[in-house]
Each structure stands twice: as C-alpha cells, then as structure tokens.
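Same chain as my last thread, 206 residues:
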Amino acid sequence: MASLRDLLDLANVEAPGPSPSFAAPHILLVFLTISRHSYVGRQSLARQCGLGEGATRTVLKKLTSEGWIGVIRSGCYLTRSGKLLAKAIEASVSPLVSIPRSGLTMGEHQAALVLRGAGGTVRSGIEQRDSAIRIGASGATTYVMKSGKFTIPGGSSNCERDFPDTAWALLKKELVPRDGDAVILCGAGDEVSARLGALAAATTLL
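reply #2:
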C-alpha cells in the first residue's frame, strides 16, 4: 500500500523541461486539499495551495499517474487508492488547523498540526523552522508533548506556564495532542504560506 513517503517522493521525480516551481509540501497540500472535498476544481485548488496554473497541472498529472486522484469536468477527486493513502496519512499527520495570531510563533496567519509519535525525532526545532522559512513562512515552532505538557527540547518543560497565551487551549482542543507527539505551529504573512510552512516543517520529521 502507498505511504506518505511515496507521496513526498513525487517531488524528486525528474521530468523534462524547466525546474518545477513546487516542492514536496505543495504536493502534500494539494493531496490533502483534494481529500477534504468530494470534488475540487483546478483553479480553486491552485488558490488554496499557492500554485500557478502550470504547476497545479503538473502536480495533478503526477498524482493521476500514481492512481491516487481522478480528474473529471466537476473537478479532482480521490480514487479508492487515494482514499487508502489519505487514511494512512491521517494515522500520522493531523489535519491542518488555522490558529488566530498568537505570540507563540511569528506571522499574522498561523497554522498548526500534530505528528503522531514523532516527538522523539525532534532535536532543537531549528531544522523545522528553517524548512518552513525556506518555503516562504515567517517562522515555525515545534513542541513535544511530555506528561501532558507542551515542551521545547533543550528549553521549556512547561510552555503553557512559561509562555502564557490563549492559543494553548485552542491547540489542545483542535489537535488533541498526546504524549510523544510533535506539535508544529507555523506563521506567515498569508494563510497558504502558513499551511505550506507547517507541512514543510513536518516533512523534516517524517
């Protein structure tokens, strides 16, 4: 059965012509966006994923060639294989959640997700932050859940206590993080970049 790694590896498949204007997080965002709808049109998909028309067409062609999506007049949809892949992804990566601007990371628009059981692979969080910035985000912060608390490796053992903010309650409610999970909060100047940044950060832990 296909895995999340198979999906991300599509960004590394070489094709003739100029270098692509998208990366693995774009492919993941396109797939996840399609998975949230029965059908989604190409133009809407491009807007939601921060891609141009040509790049969107190329990504869809890659996903179609793998048999994960279908494209008809009504729009793009997940095939049976695509639905199985989406289910596999959901087991390790939570849906993206929009968070009102907080003081926990930089950026007017913020997005968060949970990586189940990935807390042990987080070092300092710098790798995740840098990956998010490279794709256009303003910054990203990675937390590890320990004993029911948000922690920062090599830093705070209780972030709610040390950095009071109303965002903590929202992160708990929307993401339901468990001990051993990694929580990524990414901020950017626009919502799409915040989502792409969160996914870019997540790919460093997969």
